[in-house]
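Entry for histidyl-adenosine monophosphate complex. Fields follow.
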Amino acid sequence: MSEKMATAKSEKLIAVKGMNDILPPDSARWEWLEDKVRSLMGLYAYRNIRTPMVEPTALFVRGTGETTDIVEKEMYSFEDKLNAESLTLRPENTPGVVRAAIEHNLTYDGGKRLYYMGPMFRHERPQRGRYRQFYQLGAEALGFAGPQVDVELMLLVHHLFANLGLRNVRVELNSLGVSAERRAHRLALITYFEQHLELLDGEALRRLHTNPLRILDTKNPAMQALVQEAPQLLNYLGDASLKHFDTVKTLLTACAVGWTVNPRLVRGLDYYSHTVFEFLTDELGAQGALCGGGRYDGLFEVFGGKPTPAVGWGMGLERVLELIKEQGQIGVAPTPDVYAVIPDASALALALQTLQALRAAGISVQMHAGSAESLGSMKSQFKKADGSGARYALIFGSDELAQNAVTVKALRAGAAAQVRQSLADIAAWAPTLQSPT
Ligand code: HAM
């Protein structure tokens, strides 16, 4: 065991930096969001895909791109010592989905619309909205070449944000054309930047011959004027690429989705072609990208698959939830319908049976759980019942037991007051315990 692994027993074990626990009641907001996502995906006929969280490192090196930030410095890669394989915790899921599609010949009978939700891992500097483990919702449409699917995917995001009540989210678009167009633009970019070498920072100099497109992405204020004047890829697009892009813009407008073209939107991953887009907010500080994506018509071939056009996006769910909070929407914490107060251990069997019958009738129940020695006084049980947020307490006392009954006591205003109910006709009155939704 290495020295690092052999930590003293007294050392406090805490979560890895940049990786968060999601705890109740906050986890209820996640479930609420996930439910909204699932029902919306159904409306657009997107089907769920679940791929492994660990993939061969080469998948991302070849797919995401050797000169991207992700591959150069953000991947959690390790050697599986048992078989000397280099593995990586997925930093994004587009390469994994494409690998799975090729491996299982998923598009043999036509295009497939897929979505996923799950953790991704990037070793970035943690800050608000940027984590080392974060949850991404992604949608990928495989096997569709037409611009209408680019639009469908953006409508899906727009629709989701509307359902979540989000405001002030803007859409930026660009087109990265096809590889011959990008090559011509790349040469022009290199020539342009070579004429201004003295204005380039270290990062830009390093990228000049590996990935000059990414220089356009720079956040360095001193380089803004330079990149503003740099040759624009849009001016290198041929008729077919321009037509694709124009159709995307026209259809978005027809569907009342506002957009602006950002000629410097290049995205940080290597596989894009044609349409790229981002959904952005100014209300989350530096991490304002809620969702980003685009076309990646060449990625199947990079992995040795048949040429298959594809388009998709990824969305950071922490950022979406943060924006919901920022815009003043308070999520409701879930509460049980009923809290079961059980003052006497002799009532336990009957109580447990009754609670099962209530749950089978759709009533959510929180059972009082005392210590190993004692169930606790009525007073302390009622305090817990109150704290649970339940509308009703169900009291399983010895009086009640003798009559095969239970006392239903209202804990909240608006609920019916105290009544004794017979357990013989539980099915008849159980629905009255359900909280109004
Ligand atoms: P991406 O732009 O790298 O694209 O990530 C998509 C979204 O994930 C971002 O817009 C952001 O909301 C969220 N995100 C990224 N990194 C972090 C982080 N460290 N912490 C929190 N949230 C983060 C992709 O990953 C592509 N796979 C998208 C795609 C799918 N393109 C085509 N299909």
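NOTE: The mean pLDDT is 94.
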